[in-house]
Structure formats: structure tokens, C-alpha cells
Amino acid sequence: MISKKDFKKVSDYLWEIxxxxxxxxxxPARVYVSEKMLEGVFRDQSIPQLINGCTLPGIVKYGIAMPxxxxxxxxPIGFVGAMRVSDGxxxxxxxxxxxxxxxxxxxxxxxxxxIAPYLENLAxxxxxxxxxxxxxxxxxxxxxxxxxxxxxxxxxxxxxxxYGEKEDVENCEASGCLEWADTSAVSSxxxxxxxxxxxxxxxxxHFLELQKVAEIFDERVAEVFGLFKDQVVIMxxxxxxxxxxxxxxxxxxxxxxxxLNKYKIKVPDREFACVPFNSPEGQRYxxxxxxAANYAWxxxxxxxxxxxxxxxxxxxxxxxxxxxxxxxxxxxxKKEKYQIDGxxxxxxxxxxxxxxxxxPGHPEVPERYRKAGQPxxxxxxxxTASYILVGTxxxxxxxxxxxxxAGRTMSRKKAxxxxxxxxxxQELGKRGIIVKCYSMRGIAEEAPQxxxxxxxxxxxxxxxxxxxxxxxxxxxxVIKGE
Amino acid sequence: MRKEGFKVLEHKADLKIKVFGETxxxxxENAMVGMFEGGRYEKEGKGQxxxxxxxVKSFDLPSLLVDFLSEILYLVETKKLVFQKVEFxxxxxxxxxxxxxxxxxxRMGVHIKGxxxxxxxxxxxxxxxxxxxxxxxx
Lengths: 482, 138
Hints:
The structure holds two protein chains of two kinds. By secondary structure, chain A is an alpha+beta fold. Chain A has helices at 35-41, 46-53, 112-115, 119-129, 144-160, 166-170, 188-194, 219-225, 241-262, 280-315, 412-418, 421-430, 440-445, 454-463; strands spanning 8-11, 14-17, 29-31, 63-70, 77-84, 89-90, 102-111, 207-216, 231-238, 275-276, 323-329, 331-340, 343-352, 355-356, 375-378, 386-391, 401-402, 434-436, 467-480. Helices cover 33% and strands 24% of the residues of chain A. The longest helix of chain A is centred in the middle third of the chain and has 36 residues, at 280-315. In chain B, strands 1, 2, 7, 8 and 9 form a five-stranded antiparallel beta sheet that branches. In chain B, strands 3, 4, 5 and 6 form a four-stranded antiparallel beta sheet that branches.
């Protein structure tokens, strides 16, 4: 049983388990939490799972857990691990099934009092326009040839087809397309699943939210980001849907025998199935993952197109423009360079439930934001606040990564046993928040009580320097998938 | 007393089930039923029964169970079906041929993203019956 005494306090917001804790650890394990939150981390398997992650071949510096971490499969959700490209591994389970699950944020030109009379209609219209993808609402169906173009071309391909604006892809991680995508590495099973799910939301914790900027912490950066007090913004949270899930399943299945027989890699659990990053099989997965990531960016691009349509339908001449602040992934593997032991080293950064947060001046930050740093968007749980932050130089210690949400603290089963969906909707209603959903049980499962307090998570992120607070957003209307 | 086919276990974020079966075949069928009930997948009341043949080859028995369930999830999503029964034609340690019998999918409570190999356990008890623990990402 792991307890507080096994940790060394690095700072008020950073705790470390030394490499000597378990003989198979290759690097120490680090957890970004406050002392108050540390006890909560022991209540599930997060720490043993993080320690397992620290045994992966080629991992450098530390295995890291973010303040919103909770137990998952293989590594915990909220994990960051950087594997040397030269002799390290790539592990599909440490990216997750929902490849490039992420957040897109659209900014309006309007204040909340200007849309107040239309809020209900906006929520209804957005729910109508954006299909959940599980059979409700109309869906687009693409041919395999068109789908291949999406997998290779990502969001920019859809923008070229008229589903958005040039600025949408400029304000997107990797400009919405990873160029090492290769459709031949994606199975026909995965492609079949993806054909009718472009522009669909999905279920579980995926959502759309109309929010307003309630508080601004950093006026200078807020101005660069085009944010102002009471501004209405729209948050989109979803990923690569069935296509990404299938890519993960396919490669886990392929990698288990390869890992055991061909590459003879020992891991603590089969879900860690991995092969050398530079092996032909590793490169194929990396290309398939990139294809799924491109699909996810295209998916969020199409959703933005539907939202703009709904926005226009309801507000007409008052609508103004909806511009993209940023679109950022929180389940992805990227090749990045860091100074390791005084030497520039290329690593495959596995982020599973962690958001990339590049500092000011970084060449991958869009030019319009470069002086300020990369916009970071962290959603809260349903009905609670969300945050816009900005990347920092100090986050280098965490491979320029930060938290991705509030983090679950109660199981769905317990949530549905103790919380009623109707009660949640009523309570949010009293605070003026509209909820549009298909299932009351789904609402209970995602109730705010089932999550950590997002404000506490953000305090850790801010005080540890992983990213700095820019603005706090509060919900006006929540639209859930199934 | 005959054990129930499956039980949903506590897990903070995902769906974890324990499955029982008198035989391996029953274990696999109950795992499918447990997956659908755990995710609250509902069939249409009306309409024809549909049959789909599947073949799954795998590394060993635990992986076969995961790969069998993954193949079923693929069919759910692409054919919009949910299955209630499995008729096995061939059942080896690492290979299955079977017919899935199901109906049109009406709705699902939570979308199961994938079947994981995490903490996967498949074992035979002293009385010859089979049990398994499986975690699904939802």
C-alpha cells in the first residue's frame, strides 16, 4: 500500500516517488498535487499505474501524473511519459482508445445579456444540428476514398471543402493535420467505423457547452486571445470516435505477441503492449495514430461548422462571427525535443489525459499568440467552471504538459446510485444553466459531485507553473451526446 | 446453485465486469451479454432476428476473449445491431468461429470505446467452471 511517507516533497505542488521504490522503475514518478489532494490520489490505482508507466523502456526524467489524474487502464488518466525515440517504445494503451480526444473553443462577439433571450433556442438548435452519432439525428456518410482524404488531410481538408475558414486551422494544434498520417496503416474495420461519424459528438463525458467569460486573470494575454468579460464562447469536447477506438484495438492486438515474442519487452500488464518506437510496426502505429488524430480534428471542425449554422439560424443578423480560439488534443503521442542530461534528445511524448502547453516563443504556437504562449483549454465537469490558461516556460519540467479536466472521483455506478439526473438538471436550472440531453442516467453519471473540484485542480496547475490562468468560464447551457 | 452470468464491479471511470460460465462457450457468451447490459445497450422490440458469422483468431485464451468482444463492438457500430446469443461452431484455445444472433440496436446508455487487456483475468475453477474479469473503456 502506497502512502504519503513514500513521497518526497519537491514543492508545495509536486511530489515524487524515487526510482528506488520499486526495482523495475527506470525513472522516478512525479505527481502534481497539493498536499490536500495527495490523500485523494491514494484512493484508487493512479499511483501504482503511474509507477508501472515508469518502467517503460526509454522513458526519460520522470513519469508524471497531473492533478486531475485518476485510475485508468495501463497508465492512469492524466499521465505524461516521454520515451527516447532512439531506443524507447511506443505504446497505444498509453495514448488511449480515444485518440486526439480534445477541446475546441469558439469565441463569439456577443455578451451573455445579448443572447439571453435566445439561449434556450440556441441550445435546442445546436443539439439538433450536431448529431450524437449513435443513430440520432442526420449523419453524413463518406466514401472510403473521401475518408482517406480526411485521414490524410485532417481539418484543413474539410476547410478546403467549405466547412470552415483558414483561421480555424491556424488556431489549431499542428494546424489540424499531422503530415506523417498514412491511411494504409489504418484497417478497413477502422475506416468503416469512421465513415458516418464525422461531425458527431459521441457519449460519456463528451459535450458542447455555451459559456461566458466570468473572470479575467491576465488582461494582457486575454487581449491577445481576443477574450473579454461576459463574452459568450462555445466549448466542444470530443475525439476520433469509433475510428480511433478501432485503431487502438487493432494495434494493441498486434503488439501483444510482437512485444512478447519478437521484441521480448517485459511490461507490468498487457495493456502496456508496446514495440520499439523506431521499429517498422511502431512507425505504422504512429502513422495510424496520426490518421486518427487528423480524423478527430476534422470531426471537431465539422462540429464547429454545424454550430455556426445553428448560431446563424437562431441569431440571424445579430449573430456576428464565431472564431476559433484554439483546438488542442489531450490524448496523443508526439515527437518533441527536450534537453535531457544536457543533450538535445528527441522523445515520443505520450499524453493520456494531459494537454500540451507550449511556452511563449515556441515555433509551434500560432504567430498571433506566439508572444503570449499557447492557449490551453481545460474543461470542468458539467455545471462547473472551465478555464483558459496559457503555456509557460516552467512547464518544461513536465514536457510542456498540463491538466485536461477535473478528473473523476466517483464511479459511474456510485454516481447513478446516489445522484438523480433530474435533480442535477433541476439544480443547474436554479442557477440558470440549461441542460439538453437524451438520457437522465447519463446526466447522473456526469454529475459535478462525481468529479474533483476543477478550481482546486487549476490552482495546482497555476501555482506549479504548468500553465497560467487567463480566464474563468462558467456554463450557460450544456448539450450532451447520448 | 448456478451462478449469475455476470456482475458489474466498482471502477472509478470505466466499466469492469466479472463473468461466469459453466463452459468456455458460456463464459464468452455471458461476457458479451455483460458488456451490453453494463453499457445499457437496448434492442428494438420489433423486427427480425439477424445472424452474423464471425471468425476470430488470437494469441491465447485471454486475448481471444478481448478480441472476440472487440469484433462484436465493431459489428454493433457498423451494422447497428445488438446481440443476445452466440452459437459456437468452432472453439479452440485461440480461435473461434461462431454465429451471433441479435436485433437492431435501439439505443445505448454509454458508448463502450474499447475492450482493454488491463488486469484481464480468465481462469478455470476447481469445479471446472470458468470466470473472467474484463475492463472496458467508456
